[in-house]
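Propose amino acids for all 682 sites.
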């Protein structure tokens, strides 16, 4: 049933436009594969299969250049000397994972060369070339040099060993631990292929709330089997390291990072892992956060913990991704300030193979958060971005929300830490402070649902994450278009309205859940649906009332200089903008200010009326999405059409639920009627 869904953005449908088809047929006559590695085989197979499907042809893969208009694939070292000379300059433009796609003349015959420094670059080049064909771009005079701007482009699976997925809404974990290592589900290959096609080169298999058992030999042999599948696709395997593992599975009395027996235990563990998996990527660690064990249990700090693990993997080229997602009930004045306060003093103290992984915002993957103040504030420490692809706070896999729009907004935020144009993207790609170790992590939205991600449009979030990890400066609109053309249709009558729908969908969810800077008012625990009234949880900062602080005077969290001074964690230019009610962007208003109900918004509305109208706008936007979708029915296969239609119906119902619940609740504080234009709750 879900065959189309399953194929993701690699549908490779036959090109139905006769003119375009004949142009492509004229430019592609053969495939020449010069290399024999496992990765090179994947490249030639993919090219052969995809081109024959899209061009409805029977091109075969040869190992020698014969015909004109061949696509010649192979890394730099296997190219014919004359071709290599022609490409010399281009090859200086790319790094180890980059690629060149170029139309050349070789012995007076027109050819297309796809090359790179390594076979993995060639594979990325092949996918990039196929994307041109999938999106109906001209291929007559190609001259492309492209390379990833970050080193670690990685999915974080929050997958447990019992196959449940924390915050996963697309079924159970793909990893079938019970059948591994001997049974290799073909899905592992398809997973690797999908990731390689968008440049993802790492995967953390296990939940950050880690189980030490994954580090036992029984599990490591299963991890090894997965690593063997992923390797030719350029994907390294990483694991989460439970800090107390030396006690739980090592029989030690302590996990103190300064204890010699503990240090040695991790060193031996690293040796054991690398013996099985020579290219093991390293560890991702959540320590002293939300009850997880960590160095602070022993009076040590994050630096002690991270460096101890870093020393264990360093001899093998491994890294440690140490998460900065920390907050504590003992300093509950403003949770948003805690990670910065705890980590910034450690700047410059971590080992070279440690990278600190920071969520995009200071609270927790909300529909909208200002960028995390740590970005740009630790110039001597590599920081990597952690985005959440799974929609924990954004309607799970039920709501259509195109996340690259959110990712882009964060990446293009200006930290001003080194003056104007100190973009978050520049922190992440290392150019702001000259870091070599760089990365972007995305908390995966993948499970064993037939369509991988639950919502057909959630596939776009996986796709878009990969594209932005490759190049954090890409435009989310361009990415949406690529994805739609490769996944659904090239028909402009489909592309134009659906692209608009995708790009608006993020603002829609902000409007019907948390407009004007509201945040963390989802019902607690599961985080689905509204719960602004919840106030009875044991830790103050788990309660929604802590975040909106609605009262008779107004609503919002005062993080200005007069309040908790969270604004003070930003560079002065940014701090002043946020601090001043007049200059603070209205989209972040209630994040930074407690604002009176009668406050005049820029559009002349009072805050109360403006807030109510935003909720209504969100509902109206979902309604528009429903209409848009209905109108493109003829361009979509019936199964995916129905799925999306049903999901949009739920989303509409729930947008109204959000509006009514929040407005009725906040109304008891504002004491005001709903303005005209806002539907009355029924
Ligand atoms: C959120 C999420 C947890 C997760 C945590 C983390 O709080 O609700 O499930 O473990 O983030 O990122 O560590």
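Proposal:
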């Amino acid at each position: 049933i879900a065959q189309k869904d399953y194929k993701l953005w690699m549908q490779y449908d036959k090109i139905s436009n006769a003119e375009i088809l004949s142009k492509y047929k004229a430019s592609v006559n053969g495939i020449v594969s010069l290399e024999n590695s496992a990765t090179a085989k994947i490249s030639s197979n993919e090219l052969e299969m995809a081109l024959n499907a899209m061009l409805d042809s029977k091109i075969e893969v040869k190992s020698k250049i014969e015909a004109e208009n061949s696509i010649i694939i192979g890394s730099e070292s296997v190219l014919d000397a004359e071709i290599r000379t022609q490409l010399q300059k281009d090859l200086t433009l790319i790094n180890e994972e980059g690629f060149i796609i170029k139309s050349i003349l070789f012995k007076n015959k027109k050819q297309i060369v796809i090359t790179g420094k390594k076979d993995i670059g060639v594979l990325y080049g092949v996918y990039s070339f196929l994307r041109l064909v999938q999106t109906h771009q001209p291929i007559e005079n190609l001259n492309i040099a492209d390379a990833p701007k970050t080193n670690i482009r990685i999915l974080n699976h929050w997958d447990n060993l019992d196959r449940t997925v924390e915050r996963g809404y697309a079924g159970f974990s793909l990893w079938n631990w019970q059948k591994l290592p001997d049974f290799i589900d073909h899905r592992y290959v398809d997973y690797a292929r999908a990731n390689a096609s968008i440049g993802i080169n790492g995967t953390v298999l296990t939940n950050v709330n880690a189980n030490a058992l994954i580090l036992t030999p029984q599990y490591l042999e299963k991890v090894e089997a997965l690593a063997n599948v992923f390797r030719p696709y350029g994907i390294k395997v990483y694991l989460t390291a439970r800090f107390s593992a030396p006690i739980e599975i090592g029989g030690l009395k302590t996990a103190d990072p300064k204890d010699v027996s503990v240090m040695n235990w991790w060193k031996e563990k690293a040796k054991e892992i690398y013996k099985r998996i020579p290219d093991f990527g390293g560890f991702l660690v959540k320590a002293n956060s939300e009850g997880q064990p960590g160095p602070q249990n022993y009076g040590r700090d994050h630096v002690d913990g991270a460096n101890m693990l870093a020393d264990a993997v360093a001899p093998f080229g491994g890294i440690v991704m140490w998460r900065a997602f920390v907050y504590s009930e003992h300093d509950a004045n403003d949770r948003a300030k805690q990670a910065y306060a705890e980590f910034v003093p450690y700047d410059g103290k971590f080992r070279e193979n440690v990278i600190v992984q920071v969520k995009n915002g200071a609270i927790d993957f909300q529909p909208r958060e200002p960028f995390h103040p740590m970005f740009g504030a630790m110039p001597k420490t590599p920081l990597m971005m952690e985005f959440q692809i799974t929609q924990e706070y954004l309607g799970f896999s039920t709501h259509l929300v195109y996340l690259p729009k959110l990712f882009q907004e964060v990446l293009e935020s200006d930290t001003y830490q080194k003056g104007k144009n100190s973009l978050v993207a520049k922190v992440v790609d290392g150019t702001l402070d000259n870091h070599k170790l760089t990365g972007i992590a995305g908390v995966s939205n993948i499970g064993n649902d037939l369509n991988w991600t639950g919502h057909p449009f959630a596939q776009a979030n996986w796709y878009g994450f990969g594209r932005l990890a490759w190049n954090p400066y890409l435009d989310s609109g361009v990415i949406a278009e690529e994805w739609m053309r490769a996944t659904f249709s090239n028909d402009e009558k489909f592309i134009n309205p659906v692209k608009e729908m995708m790009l608006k969908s993020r603002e829609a969810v902000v409007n019907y859940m948390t407009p004007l800077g509201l945040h963390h008012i989802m019902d607690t625990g599961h985080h689905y649906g509204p719960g602004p009234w919840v106030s009875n949880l044991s830790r103050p900062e788990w309660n929604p009332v802590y975040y909106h602080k609605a009262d008779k005077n107004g609503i919002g969290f005062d993080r200005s200089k007069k309040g908790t001074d969270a604004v003070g964690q930003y560079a002065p230019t940014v701090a002043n903008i946020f601090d001043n009610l007049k200059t603070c962007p209205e989209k972040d208003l209630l994040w930074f200010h407690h604002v009176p109900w009668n406050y005049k918004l820029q559009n002349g509305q009072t805050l109360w009326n403006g807030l109510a109208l935003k909720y209504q706008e969100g509902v109206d936007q979902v309604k528009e999405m429903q209409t848009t979708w209905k109108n493109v029915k003829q361009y979509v296969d019936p199964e995916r059409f129905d799925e999306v239609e049903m999901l949009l119906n739920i989303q509409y119902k729930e947008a109204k639920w959000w509006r009514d619940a929040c407005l009725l609740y906040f109304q008891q504080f504002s004491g005001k009627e709903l303005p005209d234009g806002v539907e009355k709750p029924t």
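The pocket of alpha-D-glucopyranuronic acid is lined by residues 166-167, 208-209, 286, 289-290, 325, 364, 392 (CB under 6 Å). Residues 638-670 form the longest helix (33 residues).
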